Amino acid sequence: MDFKTDEPIARALYDEILQTAFLRITSSNSQKKSRQQLISEHERRLNHFDQAYKENLFIVYNTYEQRNIKPTPKIKFTLENRILIKDLRINKEHHGKFLLCRVIARCIKINALLTVVEDPEGDVERLALYNFNPKSVSQGGGPMKPLSVDHASKYLPIGTQIVIGNPSYQIAGDGNAIIYSDNPDDVIMIIDRKFQLCDAAWRTDRPKGTYSIIRNKQSVDEFRFRGNDYFLSKEFMAAVHEYSSGIMLEPYNTALLANRAEAYLRLQQFKKALADVEMVLKLEPSHLKAAFRKGKALCGLKRYQEAIIVLRDLCKRIKNHKDRDDNVSIKKSAIGLLKHIEMLVNESQNGKYDYICIIDELHEKAKIKDNEIANIWIHQGGPRLDHADYLIDDIEIRLSKGKGRGWFAKYDIPEHSLLMASKPFEIAHKNEAPEHTLSMISKVVSPDCIIDSSVVTGIELVIRITQKLLMEPELCREFYQLYCGPNLLPMEKLNKDMLRCVDIDRIMKTFAYVSFEQVDRTNNINHENNGLGIWIKQSYFNHSCADANVYRLFLGDLMFIRTLRPILKGEELVICHYDLTLPYERRARYLKSMDIDCKCRLCMLEISEGQENKFRRNKLIKDCKNLLTNPFNVKKFEDTVIELRSIRKHLELDPQSLEPSAGLAVVYANRGDFCKSLPIRKEIYNYSMGAVLYRTSTVFGIAFDYYALGKKKHAKIWFDKVLKEFAEYIRGKFKDDETCWRREALNLLERFTLNDFLIAKCLSLTVVARDVFSEPIFGTFTPSEPTTLIGRKRLTDPNKNIIASSWAKAVELENKNKMLIDLNILYKNFTKLNSALKKKILTLRFYTKLIKVCELQESRLNNRSL
Ligand SMILES: [Zn+2]
């Protein structure tokens, strides 16, 4: 997201993001709210804002500029044009209507002037007045301190009667409705008593000038009960607020403190939770629940050893306490938590992760979402996993010449070593970004242009980071150490105030430079829901396209970084941030947006190539793509690939020609010309750089080619190669003496690339395959398996179901001819299918044919030997 070109737009966006974060912190999501609920939520907002204001916790960029205000119709102020709050309709602009209301709460000004109003009927709703311009502070320009509540309230004092013409009723960024007006001309304050409607009968008393919405004397118990109610309805912020009000009255009330600690735990604010339970334990050392929560808080703070001591002690004490039911359940939870922490310790200290369990956990957390077209499997809460961070001792951050900071090896490090694994500082997924946030933001930023949908996740991430920093300002320091471009001060130069001040400009710029897309390759994830997040340690890796020596892999929101090859002491560790098979111009544009000026071998070569060459290459690549969809003109395809490969002499630096070559290999293999497909595939294998995952199909291909050529020994070697490479890419090197590696590798393979797995299973059907592998490595294939896989929510694509069911049908008959017929039926419907499916069917068809070829060959061999 680059809004640098239009500063006012950027500032309006920053303010709206801050406002949204604020609203989200202080409102709950319940649909219908009572008058009292709306008022007490606003009270919470005022408190929060006041506190943040006093502590200089944030800056705003109020432009005080009226932008993009659409003219609205003139209104006749007659009774029939009046509208009541209860008659407002969501997402509607009530043109020609007006709302008579009066202000019943003090105001907050971030982007809009926010308050609460009631109408003569006594109905209450929130009000947001945009472009409402308190004249006395219109300095414009750079960031400034926001208006205090007292200051902002002067523009709309409590009790003021206002008329809002053409009111709209919208869903605000926090998911709750709000009365909205962006044209100040539509807002009339009724100071003139002659205004004909000001005598409307009001059901409620006129609020006093110093209207206080703080309820009269309330007891500690009342706060506790209300807090508990909020807690039960999962409104943890509101619960914290109620408990805190009670604690103000009775600072040493252990029940309130213990409850607030649990609410903080749910909000993942572990430091605050720990402070509360420590107070409880000081006052009441035998408080078992508090001890358990202390263990949880310490675990959340990654202080695992302390957590273990606390929990072990707790278990011991409960032994002596015997009988009481809730004690038994605390003990059970404590034992469960201890086991979990032991796993976390093993992960964080030894880098030992159970990858299969992690992937299964990922699948387990997937929830179904009904869609009109098909059931799409997604992670509703985003695939957030509960695992520990790990960092190897052998690397450190140092200055890298001309590139700022970077990671360096302190010692020699072998291939596929795990360097680090981390949870994100914050992450957002596309399906988590509510549509209304974006519509509200695009309205404010520019009413006529819809913000690109690809920006949705980005804005959601920035809002979440803002919210996080507003709630826990001490985290600013951790976040502000990240690179945020050349124009902002580095963290070392920020003063103490700035180090805990929520600065959206900084957050936005940091986001633009160091956010990563979380790409999940396990096979039940809907890829449209890829996340966008910030991983602090990982953002220190510098980039290289051709010479990357480390790579990243995501399992859920856990990012793993491993070495791609053996690393020498002192070497800088560099990663490839972008798809290197894309043309230089695209790559360079992307890297430039991240302030990276890559000087790797590939970039230098591409820069040195003439314009004419580039043009010719691009044309040939395009031709190949077209020929691939029509693979019957083999001669032409052949010539095009050969011509493409002749342009660049360095095969090891020609990643863009790999895909067309792979296509050609498939075409040859389809025709049974394995002598030709094999050398191409081997060449691709030797020259493919970077990630291994996409190399899998090539290695499979090589194995099949050897197999088809009757070279079973070689086929077996390559099958093992693909399995091993694939698994080691995920879990690191197998030890030489590891005997069960194949089983583990297959388990991982199944969880990653279902298609290839089916192919592997398919092979196991053939008599010959069993012959090749002395052990039944692919397990026993059952006809119902694809259906079982569907049942186990492994298949995402409804089209896959079609394949799987014809597949199952065919296998059931143990008849490969029938299977081929089924696949041919699918093939006939080719035009109706999407390209991904087409590819799959082609592959399946090819392999099914291949099996037939193999069987024929085999029977021929057998006949000969007879
Ligand atoms: Zn490069």
From TrEMBL:
<feature type="domain" description="SET">
    <location>
        <begin position="393"/>
        <end position="578"/>
    </location>
</feature>
<dbReference type="InterPro" id="IPR053209">
    <property type="entry name" value="Gramillin-biosynth_MTr"/>
</dbReference>
<dbReference type="Pfam" id="PF00856">
    <property type="entry name" value="SET"/>
</dbReference>
<dbReference type="InterPro" id="IPR046341">
    <property type="entry name" value="SET_dom_sf"/>
</dbReference>
<keyword id="KW-0802">TPR repeat</keyword>
<dbReference type="InterPro" id="IPR019734">
    <property type="entry name" value="TPR_rpt"/>
</dbReference>
<feature type="repeat" description="TPR">
    <location>
        <begin position="254"/>
        <end position="287"/>
    </location>
</feature>
<dbReference type="InterPro" id="IPR001214">
    <property type="entry name" value="SET_dom"/>
</dbReference>
<dbReference type="InterPro" id="IPR011990">
    <property type="entry name" value="TPR-like_helical_dom_sf"/>
</dbReference>
<protein>
    <submittedName>
        <fullName>17994_t:CDS:1</fullName>
    </submittedName>
</protein>
<dbReference type="Pfam" id="PF12895">
    <property type="entry name" value="ANAPC3"/>
</dbReference>
